[in-house]
Amino acid sequence: MGAFQGGLTYRQYRVNQHLPPQWQKKVQEGLSRHLAKEIDPSGDDERSVGWCNAHFALDTSISLEQCLYNEYVVIGVRIDTLVVPKRLLAVYCEREERRAMQELKKEVLSRYERAEIRDKVEETLRKKVLPTIKTAEVVWNWETGYVRFFSTSKGLNEEFVELFEESFGLTLTPEYAYTVAHDPSLGLSTELLKSLDTAEPTAFVDQDTLIDTLRGEL
Question: For the whole model, what pTM was predicted?
Answer without folding.
Answer: 0.74
